[in-house]
Amino acid sequence: MFVRNIKEFKKKTNKKKIICLDCGKKKVGIAISDENHKISMPMDTLVRNLEFCKNIIKIINDYNIGGILVGLPLDEEKKINRMSQSIIDITKNLDKYLNNYKLNIPFFFWDENYTSVEAEDSTNVFFKNKKKQKKFLDQFAARIILEDFFNSNKKNNE
């Protein structure tokens, strides 16, 4: 189920964990929050293959997930581009798949511009080896998107 505004998404995910998806052409980085939406942690990187939707269902069930935040790379004018349309399509397919399993999870899109650059900067501290850094980059980008979402909502609530 797609949610169009922040208030509705927050209401539907109140006291529930959220996962964030940073979708790339081949891989999807995943981060997870706590129930209070105070902590976000990098979780995993999945390959977008035939098992992708099954793996998301496993995460939803194993971690009692209440919502999915999806990073959307908008252009400079905050408009949808080719990559963001591809991510919207992936998300629609995932939503349809979840509905087939009677999982009515709310989805919300969040602007993810420059998170990969930020993730690269922050992972430089943890990983000196570029190959190892690249392995974790997508899930750190997902964590940054999730943190940005929470921080933006904190500012709006103050």
What does this structure look like?
With 158 residues, this protein is α/β, with parallel strands linked by helices. It has one domain (6-157): Nucleotidyltransferase, domain 5, CATH 3.30.420.140. The protein is 49% helix and 22% strand. The protein is built from five helices and five strands, in the order αβββαβαβαα. The protein has a five-stranded mixed sheet, sandwiched between helices. A hairpin with a 6-residue loop joins strand 2 (27-33) and strand 3 (40-47). Helix 4 (115-126) packs across helix 5 (130-157). It is globular and about 40 Å long.
Q: Which value, in Å, is the CA radius of gyration?
A: 15 Å
- According to CATH, what is the class? Alpha Beta
Named CATH architecture: 2-Layer Sandwich
Tell me the CATH superfamily.
Answer: YqgF/RNase H-like domain
**Strand coverage percent:** 15-25%
Q: How far apart are the first and last residues' alpha carbons, in Å?
A: 28 Å
Helix content class = 40-55%
Question: What count of structural domains?
Answer: 1
CATH topology: Nucleotidyltransferase, domain 5
Q: Return residue spans where pLDDT drops below 50 for at least 5 consecutive residues.
A: none
Structural shape: globular
User: What does the main sheet amount to?
Assistant: 5 strands, mixed
Average pLDDT confidence is: 87
Number of strands: 5
Largest sheet, spatial ordering of strands? 3-2-1-4-5
The arrangement of helices and strands along the chain is: HEEEHEHEHH
Secondary structure category: alpha/beta
How many helices? The count is 5
